[in-house]
Specification:
Length: 301
């Protein structure tokens, strides 16, 4: 799939990177980048539960209209996260080389298994949502890409094949090569073929653990690359929920976990941003709205 590049509306300046423009960070965040230069030193993790009852009803109606493939709850999460990043631009920032940058485009990645079996290979999926994308177009993209990937038992190109080639090198060669790649990553000079389609360079890396019957878990960030936002999604299950009117109901619920680099924004910004996901799942009709159109959500309520 197409990877992030410079926006046609923005003229690149000195200090920008190929995939992001340099932005001026507040004093606290600037100093934190020097005091805590590693992304893994600055992780904040949020565990929450999402009521997906309305989305389950929404998907039942939607999938009845296209029996050839199914729009899933994971597709809904991908769409909701894409909208979150679109409306909350600080979530699309990263720090590398002690400096803060904002990506030119939103990118979302995830890992998919070729078969649900022990020993089956995993493949890295990476795509860029567009302003005119809705749940339908995003679902078709994911469905098509994953289906194409699962036609083969082994990697057939892209970052997966590149990793296989690196892994085949002897240790005495691989160690210095990786050191050079990490040094180039620090300065933003890695070649495009090394970053294109790499989840470590995506805005948000997602893991659908519910697909393997696993609950959501804390997942670390990586110091390599630019990814500063990680989301894991657990298994759909029934749970008693206290409703706004004080009554208790058995609802469809999914546990999620979000890990972020606290240097790109403050906790107040993160908390308000993640509330949008809950709002979308409470009002799933927003999934049919193009990402380029605002959700109308009041973040101050």
């Amino acid at each position: 799939m197409r990877t992030a590049g410079s926006s046609p509306k923005y003229k690149r300046k000195f200090g920008d990177r190929r995939y992001g423009r340099r932005v001026k960070a507040p004093g606290l965040q600037t100093i934190m980048a020097y005091l805590l230069p590693k992304r893994t030193d600055c992780e904040v993790c949020c565990f929450d539960k999402i009521d997906v009852t309305e989305v389950v009803k929404y998907l039942e109606k939607k999938n009845a209209s296209h029996p050839n493939y199914k729009t899933t709850i994971f597709h809904c999460f991908v769409t909701a996260i894409a909208r979150l990043i679109k409306e909350r631009p600080l979530m699309n920032r990263f720090i590398q080389g002690y400096r803060m940058y904002e990506r030119f485009e939103i990118s979302i990645s995830f890992v998919a298994k070729r078969r649900f079996a022990d020993g089956a290979e995993e493949s890295l999926m990476f795509f860029i949502p567009e302003d005119d994308d809705t749940i339908d177009s995003i679902s078709k993209k994911i469905y098509g890409d994953v289906g194409e990937m699962r036609k083969s038992e082994h990697s057939t190109g892209g970052v997966d094949e590149l990793l296989d080639k690196f892994a085949s090198l002897p240790r005495f060669l691989l160690i210095p090569i990786i050191r050079i790649i990490r040094w180039m990553d620090f300065w933003g000079k890695n070649a495009k073929f090394l970053t294109e389609g790499d989840p470590n360079y995506s805005t948000c890396l997602m893991s659908n653990l519910g697909s393997i019957k696993c609950p959501s878990v804390y997942h670390h960030l990586n110091n390599y690359g630019t990814n500063s936002f990680m989301v894991t999604i657990g298994t759909l299950h029934k749970e008693e929920v206290l409703m706004e009117d004080g009554t208790k109901q058995i609802r469809d619920v999914i546990d999620i976990s979000a890990t972020l680099d606290e240097r790109i924004a403050d906790g107040f910004y993160f908390a308000k941003s993640l509330r949008l996901v809950k709002h979308i799942f409470k009002h799933p009709e927003l999934l049919d709205k193009p990402l380029g159109e605002t959700s109308g959500f009041d973040y101050d309520t």
